[in-house]
Amino acid sequence: MATFWRRAKSGGGVDRGNLREQLNKVLAERAEVDREIAMTEDVTARHKLRAQRDMLNAKKAALGQRLDEERDRHAVVVRTNEIERRNIQTRILTNAERMRLHVTTNIPNWNHALSI
What we know:
Blueprint: H1 2-10, H2 16-39, H3 43-105, H4 110-115
């Protein structure tokens, strides 16, 4: 049960907000490079800017993939926590039912005792 609560608190994995922040930064950089490409007439400078844009696209793809992986990991943790919660709930209800049956079967029959 301690594992359940530890997993629920941590959420597992890397901070998705940080990944999203990095991705937004790369997207902003890429937009700036695209503006520079559109405004540059020098072929050599344009070639360097396109190489920089390609590098940013690769970075964007890698960050997007990591974000997807973290999203999937989080979904697994949520599903696992829900299953564990249901199992705990089932055990509690089963134990309560056993206790109820135990108590009701061990109650003396007062009607029978009073009629003697």
